[in-house]
Amino acid sequence: MQQSMHGMWSSRLAFILAAAGSAVGLGNIWRFPYLASDHGGGAFVLVYLACIALCGLPILIAEVMIGRHGHRSPVLTFQEIAAQTGASRAWSGIGWMGMVAGVLILSFYSVVAGWTLHYTWLYLRELLGGPGIADPSATFGELLGNPLELTLWHAAFMLMTVAVVALGVEKGLERAVKFLMPALFGMLFLLLGWGATTGHLGDAAVFLFKPDFSRIDGAVFLTAMGQAFFSLSLGMCAMMTYGAYLPREVSIPRAAIGVALTDTAVALLAGLAIFPIVIQYIGTPTGGGPGLIFTSLPNAFAQMGALSGLVFFFLLVVAAWTSSISLLEPTTAYLVERTRLSRRAAAASVAALAWLLGLASVLSLNRWQEVRILGFGIMDFIELVANDLMLPLGGFLISVFVGWVLSGRIVREQFEGVPEAVFRAWLVLVRYVAPILVGIVLVRGVMARF
Asked: Packing angle between helix 12-23 and helix 306-338, nearest 10 degrees?
């Protein structure tokens, strides 16, 4: 049996934990609640779930399938498969674009993750007898206005990421997620229990699961599709890289469904945990915006106690950590395969590049705040290019490649043991439904922003 030179996951559970760790991140616990808050609650959730089922899951299966067939980094996998099927080597551009997108996302993702480290420290300090957060808005503003402090937290988080990736698949990635994912769920259920004590769990459930169909419009659809891609780590070749380490005997559809269900469950649990607290201490679950976590919730934690704040922000750190590992892994794997660098040197090199790029995002929050690129701040522009353009484009191209270019024999081999009806349904989704919907979202997204 062909195996990756980087190692293999020990089991289907190990892959699900790792891939779910990649998917579960700040997108679920920070981004999903505030997007639901801003876009009508249940209306957004309904469209989001539809996007996961019709586009996210089919493309996730396609990415993992390509990865397992090649057992190498995305660029080399595409080159090999293109040669096998007689297709153009230009398809390897998907791998290049995915790696670039991953590094760009990691550059600003690490900056935001540094905020969670800072807040974890603030609540730990308060729990040990230090001062609490008296004015959350001022505290957050002071952090964003301090480039040195932002840079140090950004560096600390990047070092945490390198420390895992440098150790490899079994000793690094798998060992980390086997500890971090159960810890994440434990803290999430603890917060859910806290939320239930407010008496507003039912109100939160109504807000999240009772859709107001009048709120569903083009903006909700665009946002939900973007969140589905961001949340499932699609289009950046992270899932393709993790698929390269998947043993042959593991069913790809079953594993992918496990990943998608875990990712979605975390997002919904985060909403059920956060919104009762928001309703109790802030009054309304709507209109929270990106600052919901860093400026609104600290008001609630001031009344609930420092321990609640510590648990919540450490939960964010863990979620961000499992995702950043997958952002660093594809380019690290490529460098190991194509150069004489050791895994440690390769991981450190890619992380150093992402950290340096992240300094632009740091400075865009303060000293370079007035700098604009096509009307966007630097950090917003990097996020726009990587998250809103490159990820959907990558997902679109992956669905076209697998649905129309890849050899039918190769595709069917990767679905060995899967019922024919399931295979046919997936093929329809990946050939027709996913590329059409993603293409519409990509074009409308570009038109809306430019």
From this structure: 110
pLDDT digits (tens, 9 = 90+) for 219-269: 788 788 878 877 787 888 888 998 888 888 888 988 899 889 988 988 898
Q: 């390269």: which residue's tokens?
A: 244
Calculate mean pLDDT across residues 88-104. Answer: 94
The pLDDT of residue 1 is: 42
Inter-residue contact 114 to 434 (CB < 8 Å): no
Distance between start and end Cα atoms, the chain: 49
Give tens-digit pLDDT for 396-431: 999 999 999 988 888 888 887 788 888 999 999 999
Angle of the 57-70 helix axis to the 74-85 helix axis, nearest 10 = 80
CATH number of 12-449, picked from 3.30.420, 1.20.1740, 3.30.70, 2.60.40: 1.20.1740
Contact 21, 326 (CB under 8 A): yes
Q: What share of the chain is helix, strand, coil (3-state, %, to 5)?
A: 80, 0, 20
Rounding to the nearest 10 degrees, give the CA dihedral for residues 100, 431, 406, 445: -20
